[in-house]
Amino acid sequence: MDGKIKYEFSAKTWQHQGPNGWYFVSLPIAMAKEIRENLKWQEEGWGRLKAVAKIGNSKWETAIWFDTKLNTYLLPLKAEIRKKEKIQKGDDITTTIWV
């Protein structure tokens, strides 16, 4: 992960309200604050920041999104990753991201 900063955290998964709502994991606020202070200049529209994520044996290219209401970045969890890693809503998962 050349030139990328590695962050590791544990957090509970949650689902956005609404039918077929996306699943997310929220970064710890202190971590999000540090990332935003250092990397905000790299953000694209809507607070999108390219990232690589790893949960269990699954690693994928993705993006984290800054949510102003929650004051942190959100990592969306694709259905294929949730299936592979058997992730359910409310699970406490350890996640590694590189931004």
- Rounded mean pLDDT is 94
Helix proportion of residues, in percent? 10-25%
Query: Which geometry do the CA atoms define?
Result: globular
Largest sheet: 6 strands, antiparallel, barrel
Textual characterization of the structure:
- Strands 1-2-5-4-3-6 form a 6-stranded antiparallel β-barrel.
- A hairpin with a 7-residue loop joins strand 1 and strand 2 (23-26).
- The radius of gyration is 13 Å and the shape is globular.
- It is an alpha+beta fold.
- The model has no long low-confidence stretch (mean pLDDT 94).
- It has a single domain (6-98), classed as Elongation Factor Tu (Ef-tu), domain 3 (Beta Barrel), CATH 2.40.30.
- The protein contains 2 helices and 6 strands, in the order E-E-H-E-E-E-H-E.
Sequence-ordered SSE layout with sheet pairings:
Elements: E1 6-15, E2 23-26, H1 29-39, E3 48-55, E4 58-67, E5 72-77, H2 79-84, E6 92-98
